[in-house]
Amino acid sequence: MVTGSGYARSLSDNAIAWWTQAQQTGRLADVDQAIGLGRQAIAASGPGEPDYVTFVANVGTYHLTRFGLSGEGTDLDQAIAHLGPGAGVPGPNQVLFRTNLGAASLLRFQLTGQVADLDQAVAQLASVADVPGPNQVTARTNLGAALHHRFELHGRMPDLDAAIAQLGLAMAAAPEYGPAAGNHGTACWSRFERTGDPADLEGAIGSLRKAVTVGPGDPHLATFLSHLGLALQARFERTGVLADLEEAITHHDRAVVAGETQPHGFPARLSNLAWAYLARFERLGRPADLDRAIDAGRRAVAAVGDGPLTAPMINNLAISLQTRFERTGELADLDLAVELKERAVAATPDGSPGKPVWLMNLASAYTMRLERTGHPEDGDRAVEAGRRAVSAMPANHQRRGMALSNLGAALQERYDRTGDLADLEEAVAAKEQAVSVTPEGHPDRPLFLSNLTLAYQERHVRTGSAADLDRAIDAGRAALEAVPGDHADYALYLNNVASAYQSRHTRFGSQADLDLAIEYRERALAATPDDHYRRALYLSNLGSARLSRASRTKSPSDLDAAIDAGRKAVAATPADAPDRWQRLINLAAMYLERFDRTGDGADADLAVHNARQVVDSAPAGHPVHTSGLFRLGAAHLARFRATGALPDVELAIETALRAVAETPEDYPFRASRLYIVVAGYLRRFEAGGGAPDRARVDELVAQVDGVRESLPGDRVMLGWAAGRLLEALGDHETARRLLDTAVRLLPAVASRVTPFADQEDRLGGRIGLVGEAIAAHCALGDAAGALEVAEHSRGILLAAQLDSRTELDAVPPALADRFRHVRDRLNAADLGTDVVDRRRRLWAEYDALVGEIRRLPGLAGFLVPPRWQDLRPADGVVVLLNAGRRGGNAVVVPAGAEPVPVALPELTAAEVEARADELAGAIADPGAFAGELRRQRVVAELLAWLWEAAVGPVLEVVAAPRVWWLPTGGLGMLPLHAAAPADGPGALDRVISSYTPTLRALGHARGRAAAAARHHLTVAMGHTPGLPDLPATVAEARSGHAGTLLTDEQATVDRVLAALPQASWAHFACHAGTNPRTPSEGALHLHDGTLPIARISRLALPTAELAYLSACSTGQIGWRHAEESIHLASAFQLAGFRHVIASLWPLEDRTAAVAAERFYALMPATPSAGQAAVVLHQVVRELREAQPDRPHVWAPLIHGGP
């Protein structure tokens, strides 16, 4: 401070004394005394006096001090007005005056946001920053702060770099000067926010830690504490270290307390505290933290006016309100969040560094409101704001990932409303970029990965891309692995990846994927509070997943749980929320599944009611409206089945036609929607409601032919229904073509990337399709075509297994080893949760090796399916037997001749089903006397009917004494070989019979060399834990030749598996179990467990010759998988046994022992079992002669093999 002359100088000296005292006491009265005396000094002097300018500038300095105590903007006005003249006059005090004028201009900018003040501050301070002296550190500190503010206003990186440089020089000159260190730390943090350079973040934290070590009276302490909190929070957001966030909150709390007496900057410090509380809520999910964040945010916004510097506070409060909406679903919070974010954007000029961030956040709010209300204008606003944010944000901005992810979310949400594929493609691209620009370990990366999961999954649903499913699961798993289980968004990440697993189950049928989806959905729901707005979503998704499992397993508990979850989801969703539509559709599907099981018309009514709500309220053309039409059509068709009311079937056709019209031609689920139309016309015609006109039929056929992108299973069902419709309308040629297309798709239904049981499940439930395709060929006199259809559409899994047994003698050894290695891994048991991923990779390698082998000379036909002409028997005949809806057919395949068709008008599928059901009931009847009589009657009547309807007419045209029966569908459950009229000779008296599931299986068995040595393995279980004893097995075991004998406790699974490779003949006298829904779970019961079909079929036994399965139902099939012939007999054939003796239903213990004893007694003592069919034929005839009135004890024994 300087003095003047005379009286004026004396007044000025007194003013300086009061000002000095004010700096020590902090009393406004002291500084007011200084201002009063200073003004008197000015009045006592004059413009011409040498010290006049000094006296004026001194008063400016006093007002600057007063502002620090009062926070009143008028003090800054006075300071600037009084300091201006001194700053403009050269002299020894000019540096001081310019320094103070720059500081005052900077403070007024901070108070009012006037850019002119900021420019003046930079200009004044820059003019003195390089002048050595006692004010240089202050000038450089304030210049750095001013340049930092100008960067925040305009976004010019040179300003920020210059700010950091000036502040660095100030720190170097005065290491203990808190303002220099604090402003340096703040500027470094800003540059970190822009570039993401960790060095800047560490520099910010280091400098700010120095700054906050000053005493509690420092006027800058509150500011630096708050900035240190921001820097530590930024490091938490980068690394996820919770300790940084906890420390940040501590510093923010101190900043608020320390700044309560300093009005300037207090709102910003409150807002920063609110932001930290919000971050902790998002990390730990504590509701109290969210309440604190909103409270502090409201106080901050209430304490500040509009302007570019208030935008961050408004934005922070808006984000907290939006977060509370996400928890509670309170729409008022979301509306206010949108309003505040719009204010933040409007208050910030273009070019400001904060503008892209505010736009990014606004896009997120619009997207969320679109999701909640469905207003299309919010979708357009969200995309526009998101695009502006990405466009305005520098490529190296550390929030660019969030901006891209939010833009992707906006585009995907708009796609959900419009179905515009371009939006979805852009959404995927934006979300992929979000992940790519975000480094590993960044706390936001899991969110971006999880969002990308949803985009990939949605694109799969739209395009059918299997690769997108794998990408979705990879991204979702990476998101889960990157966060702890107590993360606030962990439930969301679980839900998102569960959706991908469930979609992959829908596409490929993997039970492991579905089970994992359900597990994740249950965990997501358990981690979500009852009042959280996403709970309804998680409930609906869990219900949908349980419905999928119930559809597969027929589990009542899963279906009950699905409906319960679906109802709760709908109840928890606001009536005006667009999400309610999909939840109603899901619930309708659950009621339809229960209707399919129970036939209760009330469930069909509920399905109609729920789907109708969607159709009536969702806008036409909206994807969910289309889904609602489809579900409503399905519900009306179901109700027609319950009531027979033609109006329902008419409504089914009408609504399904509308659904198809709204569905893109390349949509993967178009086939399922078109199926309701076709099935509706078929049901209407069958019910006497009339046929569609020819033009409509031609249009339907064209649409069926045009479906290319749908799931194979849906295309099969559509082709089947269309074939039946055309056949019913008398267009047999078109019906044949449609049915051929359907059956040719069957191999694609069972995805080879899934385990055997999943493939088996996918192929089940289509009983009748193959039979109708065969019948369509026979109706046109095309016996060869019928045989070809049967060969390539039945035993699909069996054919795949036979491929895996292909000999590799002609393949170069090194290539053969590579092929064998991959093949063996594919045939190994499938364990773990990543089965689909692993098998997909192995199959890709397998296909590449097959291609490499086929390119070798002479190997172009490697693994190419053989033609049926190459599989005709060398002697005898094969008889394909098929039952259709209006009659049956046989195709006799003689050795070396063309197939011969035989019409069987009495062999209907309905009668076969009725006879098979009657047989199953009789066999299972536990009654000692009544059950015995029932079995005698039912089997005798069955054999007579088989003779009249099928076997008798066939044998009229068969001259050969040797027949291989190839039955389709339910005929495989019946003893064709024992068919006979009630009063005369039958099949046992005419031909020696064997069975084969396909021509190829028979050819494979014939192609194997007979055993060169005879080594016996006998497994006899007289006592099996938990099952009835079989005492006759001891005698049965003795009937075999000498060899390895494993009985009771010796017959463990491991011992049997170890003994099988050395055995050429194997005899099993034990219990066997079957599973009609999952035949591959059928098994032999041993001492310590079961030996299942799936495990047996994976064996490769090079010397295997004969397996005699003297066990219950070892040749029995179930209706659902009748065309696949999956049973113990076929499993042993796959394992390598050329001949297998099995039983269609359980044998009495004593009868089984007698049959086995006679069989071995009659068999030649040679290694080959070539006479097995002849000998078994003789054994059965002997049993018949001994007990002619008990056909159920001798009719079930069958032979499979050459």
Describe the structure.
This protein is mainly alpha-helical and 1202 residues long. Helices cover 64% and strands 6% of the residues. The protein contains 51 helices and 14 strands. Strands 7-6-8-12-13-14 form a 6-stranded mixed beta sheet, sandwiched between helices. The chain has a 5-stranded mixed beta sheet with strand order 3-2-1-4-5, sandwiched between helices. β4, α44 and β5 form a beta-alpha-beta unit. α24 packs antiparallel against α25 and α25 packs parallel to α27. The longest helix is centred in the last third of the chain and has 26 residues.
Put the structure in a nutshell:
It is built from 51 helices and 14 strands. By secondary structure, it is mainly alpha-helical.
Mean pLDDT: 89
Mind describing the biggest β-sheet?
6 strands, mixed
Output the CATH topology of the domain at 1002-1200. Answer: Rossmann fold
Distance between the termini: 118 Å
- Uncertain stretches: none
Strand content: 5-15%
How many beta-strand elements? 14
Widest sheet, order of strands? 7-6-8-12-13-14
The whole-angstrom Rg is 42 Å
CATH class type of the domain at 1002-1200:
Alpha Beta
* Silhouette: elongated
Number of helices: 51
Structural class: mainly alpha
Helix content: 55-70%
CATH architecture of the domain at 1002-1200: 3-Layer(aba) Sandwich
Topology:
Elements lengths: L5 H20 L2 H17 L7 H19 L2 H16 L5 H19 L2 H12 L9 H19 L2 H17 L4 H18 L2 H14 L9 H19 L2 H17 L7 H19 L2 H16 L8 H18 L2 H16 L7 H20 L2 H17 L7 H19 L2 H16 L8 H19 L2 H16 L8 H19 L2 H16 L8 H19 L2 H16 L7 H20 L2 H17 L5 H21 L2 H16 L8 H17 L7 H13 L5 H17 L3 H13 L1 H4 L6 H8 L5 H11 L3 H11 L2 H8 L9 H15 L7 H20 L22 E7 L4 E7 L5 E5 L4 H16 L5 H26 L6 E6 L19 H4 L1 E4 L3 H9 L8 E5 L12 H7 L3 E5 L5 H7 L5 E6 L1 E2 L9 E4 L2 E4 H5 L8 E6 L16 H8 L3 E5 L5 H14 L9 H15 L10 E4 L2
Parallel strand pairs: 1-4, 4-5, 6-7, 6-8, 8-12, 12-13
Antiparallel strand pairs: 1-2, 2-3, 9-10, 10-11, 13-14
Helix pairs in contact: 1-2, 1-3, 2-3, 3-4, 3-5, 4-5, 5-6, 5-7, 6-7, 7-8, 7-9, 8-9, 9-10, 9-11, 10-11, 11-12, 11-13, 12-13, 13-14, 13-15, 14-15, 15-16, 15-17, 16-17, 17-18, 17-19, 18-19, 19-20, 19-21, 20-21, 21-22, 21-23, 22-23, 23-24, 23-25, 24-25, 25-26, 25-27, 26-27, 27-28, ...
